[in-house]
């Protein structure tokens, strides 16, 4: 162990994604000309081999083993409290870093002392762009983003403006907020702004943190100097309906906390958020039912 704090503390929360977590940790070990870093993993009571895998293959990792699933915000705060680095990298377990990711992110952050948060470009496994830096949400964006209305009106300006689709994501840019899938926080900013708000069990905690960072006088910097592959949804796909409910609860908490300041606005947002959640759950259940019927039909045809 070094006597001085590391440059980066990599903070990961994991739940039942042993395979992805292993690949993520391997990508960290493959960093070239890397700054000094430590890795802290909080496991949210996984039922797979995640804990055993980390202990066996990555004994240098600081492992926090929770006896229940605490959700993303609480478990992330556990890792942040245990971190000693001058930068705190929140990182999802379903990510893969390029060999230069840690080095280039630290270089950018060092060159921008005004930035409380620095984040790289995220891409899907096929290399296509993932909209990981965004403007603050609006009610109209919520109406058209990932909804039936959005499919009917795919060119709705509010939805595309929210994900900054009007910009090519190839240049450094100050933004409203960035995805918590890969978000590097300056320690001084963390100490001023504080931990993630644990009222957000899952969803919108990164938006809330962006709001708080700006209000404390820091900037949020999107820096496409490196790419990080983000698979998306490995853990949440294991519990689709609870994830939809938690995400919409987070959405409502975000609007109530920062954007809907009076009772009527909060009531309107509450109604709209839960109507949206209900429609998404109904749509998912319908697709699941149709998939079952299709499999049953194919099985019957095969038996005849």
Can you characterise this structure?
By secondary structure, this protein is of the alpha/beta class. The protein has 11 helices and 12 strands. The chain has helices at residues 18-29, 50-57, 72-82, 101-111, 139-144, 148-152, 157-162, 187-193, 205-215, 240-259, 263-303, and strands at 8-14, 37-43, 62-65, 87-91, 95-97, 115-123, 129-130, 133-134, 173-175, 177-178, 182-186, 219-230. The strands form 2 sheets. Strands 1, 2, 3, 4, 5, 6, 7, 9, 11 and 12 form a 10-stranded mixed β-sheet that branches. Strands 8-10 form a two-stranded antiparallel sheet. The model has no long low-confidence stretch (mean pLDDT 88).
CATH class of the largest domain: Alpha Beta
- State the end-to-end distance: 67 Å
Helix content: 40-55%
Characterize the biggest β-sheet.
10 strands, mixed
The assigned CATH architecture of the largest domain is Alpha-Beta Complex
Question: What is the H-and-E element order?
Answer: EHEHEHEEHEEEHHHEEEHHEHH
Mean pLDDT: 88
What general form does the structure show?
globular
Please give the oligomerization state of what you see.
single chain
Question: Which descriptors would you attach to this protein?
Answer:
304 residues, alpha/beta, Spore Coat Polysaccharide Biosynthesis Protein SpsA, Chain A, ten-stranded mixed sheet, two-stranded antiparallel sheet, 11 helices, 12 strands, globular
In brief, what are we looking at here?
The chain has 304 residues and is an alpha/beta fold. It contains eleven helices and twelve strands.
What does the secondary structure layout of this molecule look like, with pairings?
Elements lengths: L7 E7 L3 H12 L7 E7 L6 H8 L4 E4 L6 H11 L4 E5 L3 E3 L3 H11 L3 E9 L5 E2 L2 E2 L4 H6 L3 H5 L4 H6 L10 E3 L1 E2 L3 E5 H7 L11 H11 L3 E12 L9 H20 L3 H41 L1
Parallel strand pairs: 1-2, 1-4, 2-3, 6-12
Antiparallel strand pairs: 4-11, 5-12, 6-7, 6-11, 8-10, 9-12
Helix pairs in contact: 1-2, 10-11
